[in-house]
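Researcher: Let's run the pair from yesterday's discussion. Sequence first, then C-alpha cells, for each.
Model: Starting with the first of the pair.
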Amino acid sequence: MDLNQFMNSVRRQDLSKRVCWTRTCDSPVKALPPVFLARSLLSITSLRAGGVRASPSSPWVPAGPFILAAGLLQRSAPERSWRRREERTGEARRRKGEVCDSPLVSNLPSSSFRSSSQLSVSHGPVFAKVNRREGAGGWSPLISDRYQWLEVDLGKRTQVTAVATQGRYGSSDWLTAYLLMFSDTGHNWRQHWQEDSLGAFPGNSNADTVVQYKLEQLVIARYLRLIPLDWNPTGRIGLRLEIYGCRYTSAVANFDGNSSLVYRLSVLPSRTDMEIISLKFKTLRNSGTLFNAEGRRDHSLTLVLEKGKLLLYHQQGKGREGKGREGKGREGKGREGKGREGKGREGKGREGKGREGKGREGKGREEKRREEKRREEKRREEKRREEKRREEKRREEKRREEKRREEKGREGKGREKAQEKGREEKRREEKRREEKRREEKRTEQNRTEQNRTEASVSSSSGGRLLFSLGSLLDDQHWHYVKLERLSTHLNLTVDKNTQHVHIPAELSHWDIQQLSLGAVQSHGLQKPILSNKNFHGCLENLLYNEFNLIDLAKQNNPQVTVVGNVTFSCAEPVSVAVTFTDSHSFLQLPGLTSWSSGFVSVGLQFRTWNKAGLLLTFNFLQQQGIVWLYLSETRLHLQIHKAGRVLLELSTGSGLNDGQWHSVEFNSRQDRLSITVDKDEGATVHTSLPLPLTDGQLFFGGCPVQEGSQECRNPFKVFQGCMRLLTLDFQPVDLIKVQQRLLGNYSHLQIDMCSIIDRCSPSHCEHGGRCTQSWSTFHCNCSNSGYRGATCHSSAYEQTCEAYKHKGHTSGHYYIDVDGSGPIKPHLIYCNMTADRAWMVIQHNNTELTRVHSSSERNQHSAHFDYTSQEEQLAAIISQSEHCEQELSYHCRKSRLLNTPEGAPFSWWVGGPGPGQVQTYWGGALPGSQQCACGLLDSCLDSDHYCNCDADYDQWANDSGLLTHKETLPVRSLVLGDIQRPGSEAAYRVGPLHCYGDKNFWNAAFFDKKTSYLHFPTFHGELNADISFLFKTTSSSGVFLENLGIKDFIRIELSSSFEVLFSFDVGNGPLEVRVVMSIPLNDNRWHRVRAERNVKEASLRVDEFPAATQEAPSDGHIHLQLNSQLFIGGTASRQKGFLGCIRSLQLNGVTLDLEERARITPGVRPGCPGHCSSYGSLCQNQGRCVERANGFSCDCGQSAFTGAFCHKEISANFKSTTSIAYILKEPYELSRDSSALPSSIFSDMTLREENISLSFSTSQSPALLLYINSFYREYLALLINKHDELELRYKLHSSRDVEVLESRVMNLADGRLHTVAIRRLGETVSIQIDQNAREDFNLTSDVEFNSIKSLILGRVHESDELDAELAMVASLGFTGCLSAVRFNSISPLKAALLLPESPVIITGPLAQSSCGSSSSANPYAAETTHSLSDQPASVDPGQPLVNAIRSDSALIGGVIAVVIFLIVSALAIMARFICSRKETYRNQEVKAAQPEDGHEFPFSSQADS
C-alpha cells in the first residue's frame, strides 16, 4: 500500500464520525495534534500488514481509532506515552475542563433514594440533599440505631471521589460517624476502608456545616449506602448527603466457564523492554484461568485463580523451537527455523509428519497420565468407601454394645452400670484426645498441603510458580490486576499490592505472540495449569500494551477469536450473604411445620478464620432435647443432648477455617441422620431418634442475650464469619426479608455483605514469620526465624561480638545479626573474647596449609574460598568493624611469587566486595605495591626482589603476613602461577577473616546543654518502627528522640528519674507506653532502651526488665506519617532537652552517626567516656575495670583468674613430688631494689589480716594444700586431716603452740571440687567451704604474721620449723587438682603457669589443666575444640608442615608421625627422670609437651580453627 492508497482508505472510513483532527473538538474520539499528524504523515516510509509505519525517527501514525482498534499498528514507547497523556487530558476536555469532582446527587430523581425506614413522609430519603430545605430538611429514620441506612442509586457505574454530609436542617439531628458501602447491583455490598483497618468516617459537629471527605482510593460503583454509627446524643439520626465524581466508561466481557477470547498478533512485534497486561475481574468461583500468554520457544505465562488467590506460572512446552504452531492461513509468512507448516515450501512434508508424529506421541503420553490419574482417584475412592464401611461397622457394634448395657441397667445392676459409665466416659475422653491429636495432625498436614498446592500444580503441569498474590478474590467484586514485563523483572499487581521477581533466563528474550483469555487455547504441547477450570465471571478493560482487547472483540477484529458464548455485559448473580461480626451476633428463623414428622433438612454455606463457633442449634421433643451443629478445632461436629446426656455425636471435615466457602447439609430422615461438608457425605448414622420440631426456632451463629432463656443455649464459642445460601427443606431463606424485620429476628449482623478480611494477605509478619489469623486479629509465629515481637520485626540476636562481650558472654559461637531488624539474616560465627578485643572469626572452606607440587600438565593452581557467611553478611561485618585482617602465607622452593613490581606477577589473589578485584600485593604489604612484607622492611633474601620467594632459591622460604586493608577483604580466590617447573614446590594458607571493633556500638554523643540537639532526615517507619539506644545521665528528665508529622508524631523521653515514656500518634489519638523502674535511671550508668511500634502493638523495654506493651486499636489508622526532621537529644521547640550521653542509636536496624553530626553541632560533643561505672561489674574475681576510649577492659593482674572478664580459672594437676614455691624478697632487698615486684612488700610487713581463696579436688588424706612461712619461724598451713576435714593451722609466735582451727564440714577428700574462702581480721578468722554456712573462730596466741618468706603449694622440702605431725604431712605432698589459688594479692599458681618472670621455683611435674573448671555451661556459646595436631615434614630442610590429608601419601605421613611420637615420648621420659634426680628448679612458664622446633622445621603446622 502506497501513500495515496492509505489516504483513500482513510477517506472511505467516514472520518467525520470517527476522528477529530483538532484539539478543540468534543468528539468521543481522541483529538490528534496537527503537528504530530503532519510530521507522521510526511515521514511514512513503509507499510506493514495494513498498518502505517513511520520512519525510525518518528512514531507510528495514529491513523484513527478504526486502525488502532483493528490492531494493525505497533506503537513505539514514546507514542504510547503520548497516548496515555491524551487519554488523561482528553477525558477532562470531554467534560469541558472539569476534574472528577462533579456533584452527583443534586439532580437525581426521587426513585434513586431508598432507606431502611423514615420518621415520616417529610423525613424521607428524597430530602437528603446537601443545602436543601424541602420536607423536614433531611432524612431521619424511624428508629435511631446502627441498623439504619440511606441508599443512593447513581443510575450507572460511576467514579466516586468524595462524599459530603450535613445534618438535618434546623434541628439537632446529625451524624458524628458513619460507614460507606458500595455496590454495582444493590446487593453484595462492600465497605470502603480509608486504610487497611479504618472503616469509620468522621461526620458533623452541627446541623449546618458541610463536611467533605475525599476518598484516598477511588471507588467505581452504581449504588452507595451510608450506615450511621454515631450521632448527636441529644438528637436523632439526621442526614443530608452529596456525592462527588464523574462518569465511568468501560468495556466488559462475560465468560460462562466454557468460553474464551484468543488474541493473536498478526505481526510479530519488535523486541521491547516492556509489555503490560492489565484487567479487572469479578467472580464467585474460587478457581479458574484468567489468561495464558504464549511466546517464542513455546514458553508461556499463565495467571490462574486458585482458592481465591492469583498464581502466576511459567511453563515451557515439550516442543523445541521449530515445533511450534501450525501457522495455518499464513502461507509464505513462516520465519526461517520456526518450524511452521510452510505448505508451499519444498521438503517440509517430512518435517510436518515428524511434528505430527511427535504430537501424537505427546498426546499419547498425556492420555496415559490422565488414565493413571483416574486409576489413582478410583483407588482413593475405594479406600474411602472401605474406611466408611468400617466406620459404620464400628458404630453399629457400638450401638449394640450400648443396647446391651441398657438391658443390663434395667436388670438392676446399678454398680456395674456406674462402672461401665465411668469406663465409657474414660473411653470418650480418650477418643476426644485421640481426635484432638488427629486434628492437630490434620491441621499440620493441611498447612503443609496448602504450602504444597502451588508446587503440586506446578509439577503436574510442568510449570514453575512465580507469584502468589491476593486472597478472597472470589467475592463478586472488581479486582485490578496488572502484569508488567520489564527488562529484568516481572511485576504483578493485585489491587493495591505489588510483588517483584527477576525474569527467568528463558524469558529474557521473549515476546507474547498469543494471548488466551478465560481459558488456555494452546497449540503447543503444554498441559494446562488448571485442567477443566476455565474462568467463570466478568473481565473489564482488558489491555495489552494499551490495546483494549474487549473492544477489538466487540468490533469483530480478525486478530481476536471468540470461543464459546462470550457476552459483552456482566451477568450479576445475586447471592445475599450475612456477616456475624461479634459475640452478640445471631440469626433466628422459625422452623417449618412439616418438620413435626421428623423430616428435617437445613443447608448453608459459611466461611471463617476461626477454629470454633456455633453454626446452628435448635430444640426438639417439647424442649426435652437440643441439637448443636458447631465447629471445633476446624472440624464440623454434631451433638444431640437430652437431659444432660449425649445421645449422639458426629464429626466430619477438616481445615474448615481457611477462609473458603464450605457447604454444610444437615438431614434427618426416619432412622438416618447425616451431616455433609462440601458435598462429601462424611458422617452418617442410622438412628431411631426422631427430631420433631413442631413450633421450634432455629438459631444460627449464636443465641440472644437473655437471662435464663431455655429456648437457645450455646455452650460453645459464637460463630464469627459469613453465611449464605441458607435453605430449609431445600427452600432458600430470603435474607432481605430478615433485614426488613419481616422474617425471624437478628442482632449484630451485616446483611447482604460478607465483610471477611484476610489479615495475612499481604502478611505483616516479617523475616519469614508464619501468619495465622482469627476473625478479629492475626498472629505471627516467629519460631526458628531469629526474630521476635508481634510481627517478627526485631532481631533476637546481637549485631556484633562486641555487644555479646558487653553482656558478659565469653568466647564461643553466637548468632550475629549484622543489621538488626534489616533484611540480612542472622548467621552463626565464632566470637573470640580477649582482654581488650572481641574478634569475629569467619571461617571458609580451606584454612589449612595446603601443599602444591609441580606439574607440567598445568600452568597454574587456583583455589576458591567459600565463607560460612553470605555475601551481604560479609560486607556488613567488614563495613561496620574498626579493623579486619586475614592471614596470607606462601611457602616456596623454586616457586616465584610476584616477580618484580615492573613485571607481570606470577601469582595473584582476588579480594574485596562482590566478585572482588585482582590484587597483586601480599600479606604485610600495601595495596598495589606488588610487594611482600619483606619488601617494605628491606629484609628480603635477595635485595633485587621484593619477596623472599622471588629469589627463586632451591630451598624453602616463605612470604607471610596479614592483609589489613578492608576494601580488599575477604580473600575470595588465589592463583599460583610458577608451579610448572621441575622441582617447584609450594604451600599456601589463607586464614579465617578476623574483625574487631564495632563502630556502631560505640558511636555516641554527649549533650551538655538543655537547648542542644542533633537533627537527621525524617524517620520512615510507616508500618514497623523499632528504635534502640543506650543512655546515661544525671538529669531526671529529657527527650531522647522526637519526630513530628502534620498530626502524627513519635517521641521517647525520660519523664522522671524512674520512668521512660514512649508516645506516638498515627491518627487515632496519642498512645503511650510507660516503663516504671524500681531503680533510678539517672545514676550515670548506661541503660538500654528498646521501643517498637507495629500494626499490632507497641512495646517498650528498659535494660533487661520485662517489656511494657500496648495493643493497637483493631479499627483505626495504621500508617505513621512523619515529615519533619528527626531530633535527637531535644525537640524543635528547644524544650525538655536531654543532658547526658546517647550511644548506639539505631532506627529499623540503621545506626545514626551521632559522632559525625556532633562534631559540627554546638553544645554536643562526639563520644562519651566513662564505661566502668556500667560494665565494671563484668570484671570478676578481683579483676579491675580499665577505661578505654571505646569501652573497657578487665585487668586480671590482681586476680587468680584470667580471660576477658577474669573469669577463666587457672588449674593444675599435682603429683606427690610437685612443688611450687613463690619466693618473696629478702628484707634488705627492698631498699636496694626499688623496682621490685609488688609482692615484695610482704617481706618486711606485719600482717594482721589475710584473704585466702582456692579450689581443690583430691582423694588424699592427709594432704597439704597451702603452706606460708616467714623469716621468724612463723607459718600458716591449710590442710586436709586424716578425717577428711579441713584444718587451718596458725603459728604466729615462734615460742607459742600452734593453734588448730578445724572445720565441721566432712568428706572433703571425695575427689570432687571444693572451694575454700578464708578471711582473718586480727584474732577473728572465718572459713567457708562451698555453699556451707560460714564458720567463725578466734585466735588466742597472737594476731601478727611477720616477714613472710614464701608461699608453697604441694610438697614442702624444708620443714625444719614444722612439728613432726605437720612435717610428715608436708613430706607427702599433694596429689590432685588445685585451682584459682590466691593469697591477698598473690596468685602463686597463676604466676607459675603464665608469668615466666615471677619469682617461682617449680619442682616436679606440673601441667596446666581444666580440672578446676565449673560444670555450668554457657547457654549462648557452643563448645569449640581446637585440634593442634602436628604433622611431620619431609627430610628436606625448611619444608612447611602440612595437614596430613593434603600430603602426597597418608601412609608415609602416618609412619613418620608414629616415629616422631616415640622420639618425643622418649625425650619427655628422660627429661622427667633427670629433673626428678637433680630436683631442678625451673623459673619459667610450664607448657604442654610439644616437639621442639629444629632448624630443619621452620614452619608451624598448627591449624587455625
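Model: Moving on to the second of the pair.
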Amino acid sequence: MSAEEKGLAEKPPAAPETPVAETAVAAPPPPAPPKEPLTKKLFGYVRIFFSADPTWTDYLLLLIGTISALAAGVPFPLMGIVFGQLVDDMNGATCAAEQHDANPFRYEHDINDKVLIIVYIAIAAFCLIYIYVLSWSLISQRLAARLRNKYVSALLRQPPAFFDTRAAGGEVSTRLHGDMAALQAGTSEKVGVLLASISFFITAYVVAFIKQAKLAGILVSMIPAYLAMGLVGGAFFQKYMIKAAGAIASASSIASEALKNVMVVQAFGAAPRLEAKFADHMATARDAGIKRGMSAAVQAGLLYFIAYAGNALAFWEGSRMVADAMAGKGSETIGQIYTVIFILVDACVVLGNISPLLPLLGGAQAAFDRLMKDIEEPSPIDGTSDQGVVLPFETRGEIRFENVSFSYPSRPDQLVLKNVDLTFPAGKHTAIVGLSGSGKSTVAAMISRLQDPNSGRITMDGYDLKELNVRSLRSFISLVQQEPSLLDRSILENIALGLINSPKPEHQRLKDILHSHELADLAKKGKDSIDPAIVSSFGPLVQEIINLIQHAATEADAASFIERLEKGYGTYAGPSGSMVSGGQRQRVALARALIRDPKILLLDEATSALDSASERRIQEAVDRAAKSRTVISIAHRLSTIRNADKIVVMEAGKVIEEGSYDELMAKEDGAFAKMANLQTLGTAHKAEAGSSVSGESIESSSSASGTSVEKPSAPEVAVTPAPAPAAVEAAAAAPSGDEIAGIDTNRPLSSVVRSLGRFLRPSLGWLVIAIFAAVIVGGTFSGSGVIFGFTISSLNPCSGSMEKVLYYGKFFGGFLFMLACIEFFANFAAWSCFALIAEKLLYAMRVLSFRSLMEQGVQWHQSEGRSPSSLLTIITKDSASVGAFSGSTIGTVFSICVNFIAAIILSHIFAWKIAIVCLSIVPILLGTGLMQLRMLARYEERHAEAFNKATSVAVEAVQTIKTVAALSLEHEVLGSYQRLLKNNRDEMVKAAAFTNIWLALANSVSFLVYAFAYWWGSQRIMHGEYSQRDFFIVLVAMLVSAQLWGQMFSLAPEFSRARLAISRILGVIGLGSNDHVHDNSSPSASNNTDPEATGESSASRLSPPKKSGVQITFSDVSFAYPSRPDHPVLDSVSFTIQPGQFVGLVGPSGAGKSTIMNLVQRLYSPTSGSITIDGIDISSSQSSNTFRDAIALVPQEPALFDGSVKFNVGLGARPGTEATDAEIEEACRLASIHDVIASLPEGYETECGASASRLSGGQRQRLAIARALVRKPRLLLLDESTSALDAASEAALQEGLEKVARDTTVLAITHRLHTVQKADVIFVVEGGKIVDRGTHSELMARRESYRVNAMQQMLQ
C-alpha cells in the first residue's frame, strides 16, 4: 500500500471555527425534501464553489487548485512503473546473491538511477501538493467569507415576521458557527485530496491497462461496487445528519433564550425544566448521530472489504499469469504484475482514505443547502432594496388605512385586524387606545411596514406603502417600541444610529462618519466623549453629530441621567440594552427617535417604564414636537394622551370609537369613558390632592419635583438585571478570543484525559469492543504487508516451480480474502462503537455544560465581560469542535497508532537492519506534523475572537430585528460585521501560506522515505543479508505507517480545536454541582433535581407551602455592583415588611428599586448589612437558595421561552413539582389571560415562538403573571408588571391579584400610582435611599414629589 496519499493532504488553517464536520452542523430540521435526481445531487456540490458571487481571483484559484490537485495524483502511479522495474532488478539481485555464481552488484547502477527518479517525483509531488493545498485552503476561506456576508445580509433583508417561525438567535449562532465550519471542512483542501485521489485512481488504472490489460480489466469490477456503496451509504448518512442538525439547532435556541433570561430562570428555579427540554432535543440528536455513525461504519467496512477482496483476486490471477510465463505462454514478468497489483492496491487504499472525506463533503452540501434556503428566501418587505418610489423630503405624512385586515403567518386563521378604516392626519397627534391584544401594536408595525396587510391597503400621502421604497418610507418615521432594544454599543453610538437613515438634506454629509468607527473611538473617551476640546479634534462633522445627540438626549429627558453615569455618553448599553434600566432604555430609544427630527413620530407605549415626572417632561417634549409633525401614540395610561387631537379606540381588531378626549369622555357608556374611569385614583384622593395643590402649582412643582426626584445623591446606575453600565468595562479587561473569564481552558492533557475518563465509564463495555476492533484494523495493515512480501517472494520465477507459484497464488489470495472479511467486521465494529461512545459523550457534555451555566449566579453571568452569546458558543461551537474529533476520527487515529507500533515490531523481526534505518526517518515525519499542529493552534487562538465578535453582531441584529428594520440599520450592521472580519482575511492568507508548507512536507516526505528505503534495501539484498521478501514486508509495513502518520497529522486542526474546546467545556462543567446524566432519551427524570437546592432534602423542599406571607427585613443594607465598588446603588437601607402586607416601591427611574428586588431574591449579595426572610439571613454565602421556592417574580420585561403556553406557565411551578392543567388554567384566569388562550386554535398547546414573539406585549405580561401565580407564592415580586396592560385588563388583573394577596406578601415596583393606592405601605426610593414611607393618603398629604406624580396621572 503506500505513498498513495501522494500527499493526500488535509486541513491547513481554515477559518478558526472549523470543527470539521458531522456533529458541527447544526440547523433546524428542514421539511422533508422532495427526492432529488441523481444528477442534481452530483452537481449540487459543485454549485457551492460558484455561489455567492465569486470573483476572477476565485475562478483562478479554482482552476489552479483543480489542475494542481489532479496533477498531484499522477506521480505515484508513474512511480509504480519504476517500482515494477525495481522489483525485477531486486529479484535478479536476490537470485544472483542466493546462487553465488553471478554478481548481484551489476544491478546497482540501474537501481540507483530509479531511486533518483523517485527523488525527482517526490520534489514534484511536494510542489503540487503545496499549490493545491494552499489554493483550496484560500478557496474555502474566501467562499466562507462570501457566504457569511450573503447569509447575514439575507437575514437583514427579511421582515421581522420571517423570524416568528424560526428560533432566531440560537439558529443564527448555529449557522455561523456549525454550518460554516461544516462548509469549510468540506470545501477546503479536502476537495484537493479528493481530486488527487480520483486522479490517482484513474492514472493507476491507465498505467495498469498499459502494463497488463487483462489483470487491470478484472480489477475494474471494484469500481461499480465502490460507487453503489458510496451512493447508498451517503443517502443514509445525509438523512440522519439532517435530523441531528435540526435537533441541535432547537436545543441551541433554548440555550440562547435561557442564557439571555438567566435572571428569570434562577428566580423560578426553572433550570431543571429547561434542561429537560434541552436534553430532549439533544437526545434526538444523539440517537440520530449514532445511526449516522452506523451508516458510516458500514461504508468504511465495505470499502476495505472491496479493496482487499480485489487484491485477493489480483494475486490469484497474477500467479496464473506468472506460471504461464514460466511455461513460455507469455512474457509477463513479476515486475509488471507487481506494478499492476501494487498501484491498484494503492488505488484502493486511496479510495479508503476518501471515505472519511465523504461525510465532510456531504456535511458541507447539507450545510450549504440550509444556508442557501435562507439566502434565497424571497423577502416580501426588503429594507435593503433600492426599488420603489422614493418620497420627496417635503412629504406631509398623512396615513390612511383602507379596509385593512391582517393575521400573523404563525396563526393565519386568526385575524388581528378586521376591515380597519383609519386616517392619521398630517401634523396632528393621533392616539390609539384599547385592550391588550386589540391590534394597536400591529397598526404601528404596519405604518413602518414591518408587516404587510392580508387585504386592503395603507397609503401615505396617496401612495400605497407597497409602492414606496422601504428605506425611504422608514426614513420619515421614527418608531419607539413597547420594549425598546439598544445595540451593544455606547449610548453615544446608540443615539447616533437614529441619523443613519435620516432623509434631511443637512444630515446626508454626516453618513460617512456614522458608518465609520470614529464615534466608537470617541465613545472610548468615556466622560470626555462630549468634551468640546476632544470632540473638535475629530473634525466639524463629528462636532455636529455630538450637538445633535446632546439636543436629542435633552428632548428625551435622558441627558441628566446619562451625564451622571460614570462614563457618561461613553457608557456601554450592553446586549439589547441590558446594562441600563428599563426607564433609561426608553429614554435613550426616544432620543434615538428624535435625533433625526422625523416627519412621523410613532410611539408604542414609549413611556410605560418611566415615573410620572419623567413621563410628564417627555409628554411636554412630544406635545412641542407634535406642532410640526405627525405623532401617532399607543398608550394605556390615558393621562398621557389628554392633549391628542384625535383618539382611536380599538377592540378585537376593530375601531369602535374615534374623537377628541372631551368628545369620548362625554359618551358616558362609551368604551373610552369606562377605561378612563378605571384609571382614576378615586374621588377622595382627588379631593385631597385638589385641596392641597392648584392646577398651576402642579405645573410649577413638576419642575421642582424634577430636581428632587431626578437628582439622586449617588451617580445614577443601571438597576436592572444588569451589573451596571460599568460592567461592560470589564469586557475590555476580560480575556479575549476563545477564552471566557473564569473558565479554565489551559488544562494539561493528563487532566483532560482523567476528566474524560469519568464520562466514558458508563460506556466502558463499548469502549473495550471499539479498542479491540481498532487494534485489529491497525494490525491488518501490517498483516497485509506480511502477505504481500511472501506473495512477491513466492511469485519469483527463480525461487520455485510453476506448481509452487500457482499454489502460493491460491494460498495467499485466500489469506487476503480472509483479511477482507476481518477488515469489514473490525471497521464496522470500531467505527460504530466509537460513534456510539462519542455521541453519548457529546450528549453528556452538552447537557452538563447547560446545567452548569444555569447554576451560576446572575452576578457570575454579568461580570468579567461574559455575555449570553459568548457562553452560547460553549454549547454550539465547542461541542461542534469536540464532535468533529470524535467517533470515526478517534477510531482512525487509534488504528494508525496501533499500526505504527505493530509495523515497527514486525519490521525489526523480519529485517532489523532495513527497519532501523527506515525508522530514523520517522522523526522527520513527526517533526513536520508537530510543526503544522503548533502553527495551527497559534493561528486558531489568534483569530477566534474576531469570529466570535462578528457572530455576536449578527445574533444581536436578529434578536433586535424590529429595531434594526425600523431604523434601517441593515447596511450599518453588515458593515460592522464585515469590518470585524476584514482584518482577518490578509492574515489568513499569510498563515495559510506558511502553515501549508509543513502540511505539504508531512505528505510528501514519504516519497523520500521510499527512495531511501529502496536504495538501502537494495544494498542489503545485494550483500545477501536479506531477500526481497523481507524487504517488501518492511517496506509495506513501515511506509504504510509513515503515510498514515502523515494522514493523522492532517487531522491536526481538528485535534487542536477539540482540545481547546474540551478544556473549555470541562472548565464549565467543573463549575457545576454535579455531573450525573441519565443516559436515556427522556432525560427529564434526572434533570428535575433542582441545582439551586442541592444539599436540601427533597422532603423539606416538597413540603406543602405555608399559607401566610413572608416577613422581609433589610438591616442597614448597602450595595454596589462588583464592577463599580466606589459607586453605591443602595445606601444604608432599612425596612421591615410584615407577612401578608402589600408594599409599593415608587421613585424615579434608576433610583434603586429593582436592585432591592434583586437582593430579596439573592441574585446579588449586599456589600454590607443583612437581609432576612422569616428570620433567616439569606445574605450569607452559606445560606441555601431554597427560600426562592416560595418567591415568584414578574419581571419588567416578561422573559418567556420558545415553547407552548402550557410549558411557559408551567415553568413557574416549584422545583421538583409539576403544575397540573387545572392549576395552570386557574393561574391564567387570575392573570386575566385564560379567555385569550382558550380562543386560540390550539389553546394551551399554542406555540409562543422565539421569546414569545407571537404574542402581544400585554399578552406576554399576563402570561408572565400567570407563571408567577401558578407557584402559589408566599412572596410575590411585581416589577412594573402592568406597564403593557390596558385599563380593563389591569383592573381584571388587580382583582385576581387581590384574591391571591390575601395569603401573600406582595412587593410591587410601579410608576402607576393607582396600582399601589391600596398598598399597606409605600416606600419612596430616591438616590439609593428610602426617603419616605406611608400609605397613599399620608404621602399625598406630605410628599410633594409623590403628590405631583399622582396629579399628573389623574384624568378628571
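Researcher: Give me one sentence on the second I can quote.
Model: Residues 1-38, 681-738, 1080-1105 have pLDDT under 50 and may be disordered.
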